[in-house]
Specification:
This protein is α/β, with parallel strands linked by helices. It has helices at 29-32, 42-52, 69-76, 78-88, 98-109, 115-131, 144-156, 197-207, 216-223, 257-264, 269-295, 310-318, 336-347, 367-376, 387-396, 427-437, 452-458, 506-518, 539-549; strands spanning 2-7, 13-18, 21-27, 61-65, 138-142, 161-170, 173-181, 184-192, 240-243, 246-249, 299-303, 324-327, 401-404, 418-422, 447-451, 474-475, 493-494, 497-499, 522-527, 553-556, 559-562. Helix content is 38%, strand content 19%. The protein has a 7-stranded mixed sheet with strand order 18-15-19-14-13-20-21, sandwiched between helices. Strands 3-2-1-4-5 form a 5-stranded mixed sheet.
Length: 564
């Protein structure tokens, strides 16, 4: 059975299961070029069908995530979410009623879903599905947190396990704990949307003049630069607690923003970020401990937007109650389409087998298409022999190389297909990337990609786990911190991609060349984009970013374009 998963909210996208196996997944931003797109994912759906060689009539089921009041209103009145998108991304100025509008938005998102809302969402989705030829497919709705949980549970591949979702809001909830046994998810605890750890951190992000739902990672990075504050002196910690797997807050989190602003007044930004980051870590650990106690299972699969906080994920990983933790690599709402497809397919009796050991699940481009894009851009490049050696030479010399090879990655991280590469031991290259090429804040660290055998010696707490896709923080051994100076945080940790030593393909070969050239099988690897824009998808986009960024070289397919 061909099952198409759809998410049409924040970071919309689509995923295709064929016979229970994942064949394609992508997010709409890569095609529309609007970061964290909110519109109906028509382009992603078309890409799924084209890649699989299917016509719309061959799709048996369309699974859509979330049918709460806020999402249903957005489907009927797209202008409402478009206005919020423009303000959140600083493309429009808030109006005189912005405070009231914000409060109303959070109130509506707290309401639970009802069957009548599913009927209304079904009616609203009818027109775009008909336009794409999907009118005959069975349409089913999947609860927001069930979609998050399904994605993490099936991808983790270590059932039975506990499944923990920690998010902003969705279908009236902010967090859930479930068991996953024999292909069945059973929920054992849930936290209401009015008590949301995700919304708490959204407020923090906004108060620091950053974009909520987008810049939370900057808040986490900024917190590393604060002088530590003892828990007993942290005024935010008493506001949120966990009891029997349920988050409880002193007041609804939508009403905390004013009180948080009054506390922020007394602290520098990095100190305020530290206070809030500590709340996220402590609450996440408390939820994980309760998940183990309530389920009797010591392995945890983790998803939801808060799961992108690698510091909190590491804290969960190292507590003695937890045997292993897996973070779904597209943990935020961008992964809901895949989760919806998994949940719906499993409910329909499909044998679901999701392999996410590789995330190159998006479009690829033939050498002829790449050559055509190069010609149309007015450039000249011939295919080169020994591409890996040429790139390794450039990296050794301290040059920055944009790397475009194979199928596009699924999720928010560059994993060796749409990447920007540099040596990992050069802080000057890190600073050049941050301030000139990527154009982002200086304190946000880059990540390394490294061979698995290197992880065993470079990372002090490497446990050989399944978090190989930049979803987990690890501590770099002190004796190797100078060798990874360009890819570690000020606290000595990093967020690595781990590549098997015998992994086929040119990217793994670059890492093997790196070990031969500078003694460490690792490179700095960041996403192929300008900060604030989506990762590149097609060859013309790669050429455009290469020209605007000032990188030294572009390795795209068999072609190497070098800047004089």
């Amino acid at each position: 059975m061909n099952v198409l998963g759809i998410w049409d909210g924040h970071d919309s996208g689509a995923a295709l299961l064929q016979g229970g196996r994942l064949s394609f997944a992508a997010n709409e931003e890569r095609f529309t070029r609007r970061k964290l797109e909110i519109r109906f994912p028509a382009r992603s759906i078309e890409a799924c069908l084209n890649d699989a060689g299917l016509i719309p009539e061959q799709i048996a089921m369309v699974a859509v995530s979330t049918f709460d009041p806020a999402k249903t209103i957005g489907r009927w009145w797209p202008g409402s979410k478009e206005r919020y998108y423009a303000i959140r991304r600083r493309q429009a100025t808030p109006g005189p009623l912005s405070t009231l509008t914000r409060s109303l938005k959070y109130r509506v998102t707290e309401w639970r879903s009802r069957p009548v809302l599913a009927a209304m969402s079904r009616r609203a989705l009818h027109a775009p599905l008909v336009e794409l030829g999907l009118a005959k497919a069975a349409l089913t709705f999947v609860d927001h947190h069930e979609a998050h949980a399904a994605a993490a549970a099936w991808a983790a591949d270590f059932a039975p396990c506990a499944v923990l979702t920690i998010d902003g809001v969705g279908d009236g909830l902010s967090s859930t704990i479930s068991t996953f046994r024999d292909g069945t998810l059973t929920r054992v605890a849930e936290s209401p949307a009015r008590c949301s750890l995700g919304v708490f951190f959204e407020h923090v992000t906004n108060l620091l003049n950053m974009r909520e739902l987008e810049d939370e990672g900057k808040v986490m990075a900024l917190a590393d630069y604060a002088a530590p504050i003892a828990d007993q002196d942290n005024p935010l910690l008493s506001w949120i607690r966990v009891r029997d797997g349920v988050i409880e807050t002193a007041r609804p989190t939508r009403g905390l923003r004013g009180a948080m602003a009054r506390i922020q007044w007394h602290y520098p930004n990095e100190q305020f970020a530290f206070l809030a980051q500590r709340v996220v870590e402590q609450t996440s650990v408390a939820l994980a401990r309760d998940a183990v106690r309530l389920t009797g299972l010591r392995r945890i699969a983790l998803a939801g937007g808060v799961a992108s906080n690698i510091r909190a994920a590491r804290r969960i990983r190292v507590i003695p109650e937890v045997e292993d933790v897996y973070v779904f690599p597209h943990m935020g709402d961008g992964g809901l389409a895949l989760g919806a497809a998994i949940a719906a397919a499993a409910a329909a009796g499909e044998q679901v087998d999701v392999d996410l050991s590789r995330l190159d699940l998006g479009p690829s481009y033939a050498a002829s298409a790449i050559a055509s894009a190069i010609r149309e851009a007015g450039l000249r490049a011939d295919p080169v022999d020994g591409m890996v050696s040429r790139v390794a030479d450039a990296l050794t010399e301290g040059r920055i190389v944009m790397w475009f090879q194979g199928r596009m990655e699924y999720g928010p991280r560059a994993l060796g297909h749409r990447s920007v590469l540099a040596r990992p031991d050069r802080p000057d290259l890190r600073d050049r990337l941050n301030l000139v090429l990527k154009r982002r804040v200086w304190y946000q660290p880059f990540c390394p990609s490294m061979l698995e055998s290197e992880a065993e010696r470079l990372l002090a707490d490497w446990d050989g786990g399944s978090n190989t896709c930049m979803t987990m923080a690890y501590e770099v051994a002190p004796c190797f911190r100078n060798r990874l100076a360009g890819v570690i945080s000020v606290n000595g940790s990093c967020r690595p991609q781990i590549v098997a030593d015998d992994e086929p393909g040119e990217f793994a070969e670059v890492l093997r060349e790196a070990r031969a050239r500078w003694g460490v099988g690792a490179v700095l690897n960041t996403s192929f984009n300008i900060h604030g824009e989506p990762m590149v998808c097609s060859p013309p986009e790669a050429i455009d970013v290469f020209r605007r960024s000032g990188a030294d070289a572009l390795a795209m397919g068999p072609f190497l374009i070098e800047r004089p």
